[in-house]
Design goal:
By secondary structure, the chain is α/β, with parallel strands linked by helices. 60% of the residues lie in helices and 15% in strands. It folds into 3 domains: 219 residues, no CATH class; 152 residues, 2-Layer Sandwich (Alpha-Beta Plaits), CATH 3.30.70.270; 232 residues, TIM Barrel (Alpha-Beta Barrel), CATH 3.20.20.450. Bound molecules: ligand C2E and magnesium ion (MG) (2 copies).
């Protein structure tokens, strides 16, 4: 008995400290089986009604009516209360504490009424059957209810006492030894049922806590599995789910949904130069900024590597442009790592639902196409998806795939365009120009495929082949004819360029001073110091250097004086303008004069008309190249041209 009392005390404490979600589950167990409650209500009402009627006692009749009314109210409450809502604590659902209070009120009233009815039956009827009916109903109810409501032990225990104790009192009041014996039995029964209820409660509580912990753990695991490990933003899986949800919410609504696909420019360089830790710090910093700016009310996810996606609901297209600018601005803010400032820029592809698609796959594909296009147009670019992009980008991608193995399949070829002295009669050198005839796409222009080769870094292998092949062909020409080979910026930055040039010269036996390399002006400006060093190295092994397409890259004059070039090629846009008027002539003249002062030779590119040639002669540039004099031709025809020079037949009329 003492232990029972101490357990009841402990129960009072522990019941106040149970977690809200556990309490919710326990309260929900009160409503878990409305059937048992309804059966209890119906049977007890029916029996008390019958006993009252047969007895003809007014008080018993009133008590039976009260039992029926409370039974009706409790049944209605049980049917109305939804267990899942209670369990989830969903917004709008009745709070568990209130629900428990309602249940407790009904239970206490009902039990007390049943107990009182039993007491009245024992006091006011002498009919043994009626007494038996009332006592067994009350005691049976008490036994059942302690099991049913053990999840909320105070309710169960009070129901047990309220139903049984009046019966005990009634039995003792009869002053009958047999009835007194029964009263003692019922008292022992109450103690035993209390013990069972407390034990059952312990088991239920432990099971509920364990299952709540398991559910929380599962939830935690699910959240971790959907989060990008490095940056903490949503990963691809979570992005996909959230994005599809947003798309579903779009149906019939007036807003639009914009997906911004971000790719960092130059992330690889940061990784290569400063290490993975720096790269990680940069990604984490950028992800945090994006999340702070767009996380609430939108989706921010890392789709892999240095790619992120930001999804936002917008009113009109211009909102997407504004968001895009903000993203780029956030990306450009330096990230501090190890006393260093890490800087990158970003490129963005944007697709907007529903105009650019309503399915997740379509929109992702279109945003990716737009991003591809943005990357192609240089750094810091935002590109919106346009239906025409599909075709162009698909072709670029196909060409990139076809380019793998193209060298091995022998699809590349060189043509040579002679460069003439100013009189247009004597060839002084030939520029090697790369041609690609693909098995699927046929002839592809270098203007299209060189950038693709540069993106995949295949240009290094292809460029090496060009150097070897150009030197091999030039070796067969008269000794005074040089060969010019175009170099890509990627080759210029590759570690083994010098070895490749030296190997091309060594294996073909071409004298180094017969090789010229052409480098486009705009390329040099990206990293002047590095370019300066490489060019000096090239000159040191006696290979000449030419500044190609001069006038397209806005070289500062100070760079020009420092960069070691022996020749400058005046871009064909200036030559094309020559016939436009005296101003254009003056520009070309100024370029030639500048080159003379810097000790460089000049070649005018893209000479197409006699008038241009005549004008160039007046400017005293050193050499000319263009369709007027000769188009690019295969090696075999160059041989013929050089053998019988001057050969008007080979020259363009
Ligand atoms: P580039 O180095 O400026 O080469 C001159 C380009 O102008 C050639 O185009 C040539 O065919 C064209 N051209 C020559 N005369 C005239 C003319 O009178 N009028 C006009 N409109 N064009 C003329 P192509 O062969 O299509 O090459 C284009 C560009 O592709 C080259 O410009 C060069 O930057 C690049 N390229 C070509 N071959 C190679 C290569 O082996 N390696 C690298 N890295 N780039 C190459
Ligand atoms: Mg060139
Ligand atoms: Mg050029």
């Amino acid at each position: 008995m003492a232990s029972l009392i101490s357990r009841l005390r402990r129960l009072r404490h522990s019941d106040q400290t149970i977690a809200a979600h556990v309490r919710r589950t326990l309260v929900a167990s009160l409503y878990a089986s409305p059937q048992s409650l309804i059966i209890g209500a119906l049977t007890s009402s029916a029996i008390s009604g019958t006993v009252a009627l047969v007895s003809g006692n007014r008080m018993m009749n009133m008590c039976a009516i009260a039992i029926a009314i409370v039974a009706g109210l409790r049944t209605t409450d049980a049917l109305r209360s939804h267990r899942p809502e209670l369990e989830s604590g969903a917004p709008g659902s009745v709070p568990a504490t209130r629900q428990e209070l309602v249940y407790r009120a009904g239970a206490v009233c009902y039990s007390a009424l049943l107990g009182v009815f039993g007491l009245l039956t024992l006091l006011y009827t002498a009919d043994g059957v009626l007494q038996l009916l009332a006592v067994t109903t009350a005691v049976g109810y008490a036994a059942g209810i302690t099991g049913r409501n053990a999840g909320r032990p105070w309710i169960a225990l009070s129901q047990l006492c309220l139903t049984s104790l009046p019966i005990v009192f009634g039995l003792l009041a009869a002053v009958d030894p047999l009835k007194a014996l029964l009263a003692v039995v019922i008292l022992l029964f109450i103690v035993a049922m209390m013990d069972i209820t407390l034990q059952t409660y312990d088991v239920i509580l432990k099971a509920t806590v364990a299952s709540a912990e398991m559910a929380a753990l599962a939830e935690h695991h699910a959240a971790v599995a959907r989060r990008d490990d490095l940056t903490g933003v949503a990963n691809r899986t979570a992005f996909r789910e959230q994005f599809e949800k947003e798309l579903q919410a779009l149906h019939g609504r007036s807003h639009l949904l914009a997906i911004h696909w971000l790719d960092l420019d130059g992330f690889k360089e940061i990784n290569d130069s400063f290490g993975h830790h720096a790269g990680n710090a940069l990604l984490t910093g950028i992800a945090r900024r994006l999340k702070d700016a767009f996380g609430s009310g939108g989706i921010v996810a890392r789709l892999g590597g240095d790619e992120f996606a930001v999804v936002r609901r917008i009113r009109e297209r211009s909102d997407a442009a504004r968001i895009g600018s903000r993203i780029l601005e956030l990306v450009e803010r330096p990230v501090h790592h190890d006393a260093r400032e890490l800087d990158v820029t970003g490129s963005l592809g944007v697709a907007i639902a529903p105009a650019d698609g309503t399915e997740a796959d379509t929109l992702l594909k279109n945003a990716d196409l737009a991003l591809y296009r943005a990357k192609d147009s240089g750094r810091r670019t935002i590109c919106f998806y346009e239906p025409l992009m599909d075709e162009k980008v698909e072709r670029s991608r196909d060409l990139a795939a076809e380019m793998q193995g193209a060298l091995q399949r022998g699809e590349f070829d060189l043509v040579f365009q002679p460069i003439f002295d100013l009189d247009g009669k004597r060839v002084r050198s030939c520029e090697a120009l790369l041609r690609w005839t693909n098995r699927r796409y046929g002839s592809v222009s270098p203007v299209e495929f060189i950038p693709i080769a540069e993106k995949s870094s295949l240009i290094v292998a292809i460029g090496s082949w060009v150097l070897h092949e150009a030197c091999r062909v030039a070796k067969q020409w008269p000794a005074e004819i040089k060969v010019a080979v175009n170099l890509s910026p990627i080759q210029l930055r590759s570690a083994n360029l010098l070895e490749v040039i030296a190997s091309a010269l060594a294996t073909t036996g071409l004298a180094a001073d017969r090789l010229e390399v052409e480098i486009t002006e705009s390329v040099l400006l990206e990293d002047v110091e590095a370019s300066f060093a490489v060019l000096n190295e090239i000159n040191r092994i006696n290979v000449r250097t030419t500044l190609d397409d001069f006038g397209t890259g806005y070289s500062s004059l100070s760079y020009l004086t420092r960069l070691p070039f022996q020749t400058m090629k005046i871009d064909r846009s200036f030559v094309a303008d020559l016939e436009q008027g005296p101003a254009s002539v003056a520009i070309v003249q100024a370029i030639v004069d500048l080159a003379i002062k810097l000790g460089m030779q000049t070649i005018a590119e893209g000479v197409e008309t006699e008038a241009q040639l005549a004008q160039l002669r007046r400017t005293h540039c050193d050499a000319v190249q263009g369709y007027l004099l000769a188009t690019p031709m295969p090696a075999s025809r160059v041989g013929t041209l050089l053998a019988g020079m001057p050969l008007r037949g080979e020259l363009r009329p």
